Amino acid sequence: MPDSTTLLVIAFAAFVLVALALDLGVFHRTAHVVSTREALTWTVVWVSLAALFGLGVLLVRGPETAIAYVTGYVIEYSLSVDNVFVFSLIFASFAVPRELQHRVLFWGVIGALVMRFVMIAAGAALIERAAWILFVFGGFLVVTGIRMLLARSAHGTDPALNPFVRLARRFVRVHPAFDGQRFFTRTPAGRAATPLFLALVAVEASDLIFAVDSIPAIFAVTTDPFVVYTSNAFAILGLRSLYFLLAGAAARFRHLKTGLALVLVFVGAKLLLADWLHIPALISLGTVVLILAAAVIASLLDPEKPSARGLRATG
Question: What are the residues whose beta carbons fall under 8 Å from the beta carbon of 289, sequence distance 6 or more?
Fold first, then answer.
């Protein structure tokens, strides 16, 4: 008979498959513009499901693992806000109609789930064979956090110039017009990709870049592959609703990027000092939440002037 952890893994896998099937086959079978109300509802649903899963982790694996899961989820979900900026730029660059954006993000999520699984499995295997790699992760996170603090803008590059997009253009015939929800269409010259496919390539490429930061960050919290992947997966699953909720308001959180940078520096320093300084899991969680809450409050108290906002909702 499988143990409780195996049952939790099976339950998680089944949940993801059912959720994705219902999402595309029932709730978004017909392309439509996702309203703010719908996005808010789904955001609450995904956060609630992540919390319920955390309760399951608490009952099955105990409080320490549950705290690690919650900390990882908070970090990953917060870092997802940066994806909102990038997705908005991608959809604006490829002129993706608002009613088609969910379809791109849906398949982007599937690709991200597979990609993260491979990267996390590789990372866990690497750590098992060479524990010193955690110090490399720590140093990388500290440097990344400092670069985020010093960078004026991380979103100035045109997504259409992304190397993966240019590679796709080189090997795949591209049709300039959309064909409904299709990623590929038939033309007199043969089968060709639509701009929707290029947008999907750009979304997957952006997730690959973000994964390079986020995966070391969660390994700084725990090296348990189960906790690392499930916290990542729930953050990714909730990213679509978060995008539609914040796409038009993300620029208002002007100090959130500073908060995210400080979180990366904190978890990186925690890894570097692990042999000399032990920070309890609950204190780590409290520190991360406190930093992010302070960044959000600072943004609300010191909003960016409307004329200075460089990002608007697409469509």
Answer: 74
Helix or strand holding residue 267 (H, E): helix 256-272
- What H or E segment, with its residue span, contains residue 186? strand 184-187
What integer best gives the mean pLDDT of the chain?
82
DSSP states of 56-85 as a string? HHHHHH-HHHHHHHHHHHHHHHHHHHHHHH
pLDDT tens, 237-271? 888 888 888 776 666 777 888 888 898 899 889 88
Q: Which of 158, 139, 105 is nearest to 265 (CA)?
A: 139
Q: Are 251 and 304 in contact (CB under 8 A)?
A: yes
Please give the Cα distance from 242 to 77 (Å, whole number): 9
In DSSP terms, 174 is beta-bridged to: 193
Residue 192 has a CB neighbour count (10 Å cut-off) of 18
User: How far is residue 185 from each of residues 94, 104, 120, 178, measured CA to CA in Å?
Assistant: 17, 16, 35, 9
On the 0-12 / 13-18 / 19+ scale of CB atoms within 10 A, 258 is middle
Is-contact 100 34, C-beta < 8 A?
Answer: no
Do residues 247 and 309 lie in contact, with contact meaning Cβ atoms separated by under 8 Å? no
Q: Chain-centre distance of CA 144, in angstroms?
A: 17
CA distance between the termini of the chain: 53
pTM of the model: 0.81
Cβ neighbours, 10 Å, residue 8: 19
Q: What is the pLDDT of residues 23-38, one digit of tens each?
A: 766 666 677 777 878 8
Burial of 18: CB neighbours in 10 Å, binned 0-12, 13-18, 19+: exposed
Instruction: Tell me the per-residue pLDDT of 183-203, one tens digit each, with 9 for 90 and over.
Output: 988 888 788 888 899 999 989
**Segment 289-313 mean pLDDT:** 70
Q: How does residue 14 score in pLDDT terms, banded at 50, 70 and 90?
A: confident
Non-local (6+) Cβ contacts of 214 within 8 A are: 75, 76, 79, 232
